[in-house]
Amino acid sequence: MEKPGEKPLLKSVFTGENGDVEEDCSEKFPSVGPMLTSKLGGFCNRKFIFKRLPILQWLPAYEARFLLEDIVAGLSVGLTVIPQGIAFAVMANLEPQYGLYSAFMGCFVYCVFGSCKDLTIGPTAIMALMVQVYVGSLGANFAILLTFLTGCIILMLGLLNLGFLVQFISMPVTAGFTSAAAITIASGQVKSLLGLPGRSNEFVDSWINVYEHIGQTKLWDAVLGFTTIGVLLLLRSLRSKWSLMGKYLALSRNAVVVIGGAALAYYCSTFGSKPFSLTGTVTPGLPPIKLPPFTTVLNNETLAFNEMTSMLGSSIIALPLIAILETIAIVKAFSKGKSIDASQELVALGMCNIFGSLVSSMPITGSFTRTAVNNNSGVRTPLGGIVTGVLVLLSLGLLTDTFYFIPKTVLAGVMIAAMFFMIEFHAALEIWRTKKVDIIPFMVTLVSCLLLGLEYGMLIGIALNICFVLYMTSRPNIDQALLRTSSGIEAMVVKPDQSLIYSSIEYLKHEVVKRTDKTQVTTVIIDGSNVSYVDSTAAKIFSSTIEELALRGRTVLLWNWNRSVRCTLIRLNKVQFHPLFKNGGLEQLDKEICNESLP
């Protein structure tokens, strides 16, 4: 079966009964054997290895002067990911150390498999929220298994070169999803910011919880939380001030407020006072390296692998989709116009999750905040991720006692301040200014994600956007012009602006017949210069269109159709279509119309 734009497999030309030279339009089915041999052979050659292991490309070209910049960038990202990792684990209803377990392996693995120097892989707010929705009540083992399954699915998609699938997720849907996620995450942190009880992280439930417990607000938690947000916004504004000092103070702002909050809580504890809700004990030491839990015990009942996956439900599909969406969107944003290999990024992300599951990580993906920090710090190669990973490991081994005193309200403030800049108001304005109809999938995705949940909202947005695309392909624009020949014969020229497939051909038939009846011309010329592909359904209905026009006494000419489309139509009905095809300029067309009009 031929693809759009491809030439069919033609044998030769031959002479017909009337002496005219005719094309042999027979079609051969593509040979599967050579195609499989070519694809499978590519797994063993040097080019494939270099493509799938980008470190073999950038490491030999590494220069000594890059080292200092990579170290500085790695430290900056590390100071950001440590407090964020703890906050994300708390958000996911996991113990704080799981956030740090999730923060180092992705850095090491992406250094080998990743192709974007700026991207950092680790825990993110959106993934933490998704984990909380699905496994917050089931325990850490489900989160770790979900990490493994997410990695396997993403890796499979990457190896099958299915990275192109992300092209079906449009910018309005992405912007709506990201904005809804930011609003949901910030809403879920309001309870911790105010020191309220409750565990809900959904948008509607979060505000219901705040409304029901607002009277239990803890004054000092609220004061420290709002102060944290204010300090973070102030430090962020110093990025372009005070030269180098202001830049790095702004980049390490999360670490500054967390260290300050922990120091304040510790100081108060020396007087026997505990004015803030604290993170609590963080298990010290490095995580054990072991296989993901394929069985677990829940409520004194042993669950097998199939029972665990059944309980995870749609998250097995939703999390890989969202992880891919986040990573590809970030890589596109920081590629600076360079082409990206989406399939390779899927391979890298899948490997990060698979290896992460061996050290008790929750699902991880690309982080926009830390990638921006990495870029602003002047990172030169993915080697900066090694420095970040080492810093996280050192914190696990040496600083866990300090993490006990981190106030929860400070972590909530860190999360809320980060979410301010994830809500894409600018994208909404840009969409409205560029193409107003695209605001519909943006708003539908945003509202659906807020009311129904992120995974359902994302699917609804994608489905709506695909409906838009299907509608557009089913309604081709048809240019119309009236042509008068030198002999005074009037003809109507219609020109569809796209290929003809089963979804659009009925519309074309209806329009051509309607316009022919309206103009009362005797000759209809269908210009196929924009038609590069016709499927079997379209060919059949196109044949009936010509028959219907013939019954109305109209002559039909097919002008400037390419060879691939001509062969498709001729294979359906050679007797009907072959005499209708005409090529050339207007003078030649004029002659053809006159000839067809002769009795």
UniProtKB/TrEMBL annotation:
Chain segments annotated as transmembrane: 71-91, 98-115, 135-157, 164-186, 219-236, 248-267, 311-334, 346-364, 384-403, 410-427, 439-472
PROSITE patterns: STAS
GO cellular component terms given for this protein: membrane
Subcellular compartments: Membrane
SUPFAM superfamilies membership: SpoIIaa-like (SSF52091)
Topological category with respect to the lipid bilayer: Multi-pass membrane protein
Keyword Transmembrane helix: yes
Swiss-Prot/TrEMBL GO biological process terms: transmembrane transport
InterPro entries reported in the protein's UniProt record: SLC26A/SulP_dom, SLC26A/SulP_fam, STAS_dom, STAS_dom_sf
Main location: membrane
Domain of life of the source: Eukaryota
Occurrences of domain STAS (ranges): 492-569
Keyword entries, A-Z: Membrane, Transmembrane, Transmembrane helix
PANTHER family: SULFATE TRANSPORTER (PTHR11814)
Protein name listed in UniProt: STAS domain-containing protein
